[in-house]
Amino acid sequence: MARRRFGVSLPEDLASMLDTLSERLGLDRSRLVEQAVRAFLDDYSHLLVPHQCSGVMILSCRSGAEEALARVMEEYRDIVSTRFHSHAGERCVEAVVVEGDTGRISRLHQDLERAGCRARYIPLPGDGG
Ligand SMILES: [Zn+2]
Ligand SMILES: [Zn+2]
Q: How far is CA 43 from CA 3, 23, 26, 55, 63, in A?
């Protein structure tokens, strides 16, 4: 497949993590960036085409976000089923089983980020979306 070259600027800390990782894995930086972009697009492109989707939302929230998190979860009760809540260091860690249309799942994702959580949605394998 034809490849396109373009310049990208990254914050210094990300760039040096990339250097270290490419050394450890023995992959050149382009290859590594390609894999990262692919994984990112896999997560998000899933939400581009509207469909009924099932998956797991993985959350890491800063301490103090607990109340905001509870409010968001209440607001999305229609698509949130089981919640697994735990703690790692100072952070709340949560895995949430989600089932609903992708538009609503995207909004849940945004609201969680706004509430102080890093969120990652993982569609169930075989979801077909
Ligand atoms: Zn899906
Ligand atoms: Zn907590």
A: 22, 26, 25, 11, 26
Does residue 127 contact residue 55 with C-beta atoms inside 8 Å? Answer: yes
Query: 59 and 22: one domain?
Result: no
Asked whether the beta carbons of 111 and 61 are under 8 A apart, the reply is no
Task: Output the CA 83–ligand 1 centroid distance in Å.
Answer: 19
Residues 77 and 117 in one domain: yes
- C-alpha span between 16 and 121 (Å, rounded): 27
Distance from Cα 92 to the centre of ligand 2, integer Å: 4
The string of pLDDT tens digits covering residues 65-91 is 999 999 999 999 999 999 999 999 999
* Model pTM score: 0.72
